[in-house]
Amino acid sequence: MNTTSLFDERAHLQVWELLPWYVNGTASADERDTVETHLRDCTSCRGEYARQLDIHVQMNVEVPTGPPVEQGIAHLLHQIDEQARPLPRAAANARWTPHGRRAWVTYGLAALVLLETTGLVMFGAPSRGSSPAVSVYRTLSTPDRSTALATIRLVVDATMPAGQLQALLVPLHLQIVGGPGENGVYSLAPVATPGDVERQVSALRTAQGVRFVEPVVKGGDAP
């Protein structure tokens, strides 16, 4: 590799490291100038900038909340009760057919889908005596106050196993407090006391399977 190629590669890497801060508006004036100068002549980096900008915009779009979970479950239970009402003997005999059994299976599956799609899925919750370094994965249909503590947003490969993601976060003392959303965005927060966000972001950015990572800009931290 000649000197020119090595210089070009370093320039690409420098710009890719600065893109998240450039996209969210927290880059310094010198960093913005470096990125903009490079983007004028680099098609590849312009494509990466467009991808990260799209992710950033989608992460900051408020998703309207749906109807309360209780209403959906109550409606489903009402339909099941209607199906369970006593019928005349002839009608009851006609009802106990493969078609009738399929109807009950359908309602059962609908109940599972309703619970999952409304976010009533929780796993990885630590026991009272467990280590505080164990992360918690929770998906809730209503906002949790813990999401206000988020310091980092993260997007990983869709094929990354949950165990690999946990192994990535535990050494950094991070836990998942929100997500993944429709765009695969996780909200991360420190397990205990706030850590070095810049160091955590740098470590995540170099990890295998990480597609995008940026610090959460609080209202009072914006430049």
From TrEMBL:
InterPro entries: Anti_sigma_zinc_sf, Znf_put. Gene3D superfamilies: Anti-sigma factor, zinc-finger domain (1.10.10.1320). Pfam families: zf-HC2. The keyword Zinc-finger applies. The chain crosses the membrane at residues 104-125. Keywords: Membrane, Metal-binding, Transmembrane, Transmembrane helix, Zinc, Zinc-finger. It comes from the Bacteria. GO terms for molecular function: zinc ion binding. Residues 14-46 form the Putative zinc-finger domain. This is Putative zinc-finger. It comes from Paraburkholderia phenazinium.
